[in-house]
Amino acid sequence: MAQFTCNVCGDGFDQKSRFERHMATSHPERAPSAADVEKALSGIQYPKTREELVRYASQQVSDKDLMDIINSLPSRVYRDSAEVAIALGEVKQRQGVRSAEEVAKTEAPSTKGGRAAATSSVSAATIAKVLSGTDFPKNKGELRDYAQKHMTEVEVADPQAIMGILDKLPDREYQDMADVEKSVGQVL
């Protein structure tokens, strides 16, 4: 019987170093996402300063990593959750979080990684940037229409890829940006 057993997949290891490598590569810890931040801030009335966002989130969540990322948002006034998601993308970029495109250049893609690499210019943050300022609820068609009109106002690397992702979203009504980002994550 193996001395170290993975509690996620059940694989067993005789050496601690191999077990630790398995955990780091097969089941890495998930960093807080824009959807996690959106959920922590659900119910907040915008516009809000970063300090107000931090104060509100601290009453909603106890996750230290999530609070750290909210604390690291740039100090400014946020008009809506899309602006928060865009700022989160900026923070992750400053912190050196690699994009799917950067990972694809250096690592063999997994099944999900292959899909992400194929749409490397599209991320939840990019979608949030394009949909910034939209009022919810919106159905898929309304999101597409808004993105198409708003795309000329924001700089994005691949507008066609963004529209392609929006086309792949389930045809339903979306309640907020977190709802959209969750569906985008399933499509990517």
Structural description of this entry:
This is C2H2-type domain-containing protein. By secondary structure, this protein is mainly α. It folds into two domains: 30-97, no CATH class; 108-188. It contains eleven helices and six strands. It has a two-stranded antiparallel sheet. A hairpin with a 6-residue loop joins strand 1 (4-5) and strand 2 (12-13). The longest helix has 14 residues, at 81-94. The protein is globular, with a radius of gyration of 19 Å. The relative contact order is 0.12.
Topology:
Blueprint (H helix, E strand, L loop, with lengths): L3 E2 L6 E2 L2 H11 L7 H7 L7 E2 H11 L3 H8 L5 E2 L2 H14 L5 H7 L4 H8 L5 H7 L7 E2 H11 L8 H10 L4 E2 L2 H11 L1
Antiparallel strand pairs: 1-2, 3-4, 5-6
Helix pairs in contact: 2-5, 2-11, 5-8, 6-7, 8-11
InterPro entries: DUF2795, Znf_C2H2_sf, Znf_C2H2_type
Protein name: C2H2-type domain-containing protein
Pfam families: DUF2795 (PF11387)
Give a quick precis of the structure.
This protein is mainly alpha-helical and 188 residues long. The protein has helices at residues 16-26, 34-40, 50-60, 64-71, 81-94, 100-106, 111-118, 124-130, 140-150, 159-168, 177-187; strands at 4-5, 12-13, 48-49, 77-78, 138-139, 173-174.
- Count the strands? 6
Number of helices: 11
Give Rg in angstroms: 19 Å
Q: Helical amount among residues, as a percent range?
A: 55-70%
What features would you highlight for this structure?
single chain, about 190 residues, mainly alpha, two-stranded antiparallel sheet, two-stranded antiparallel ribbon, 11 helices
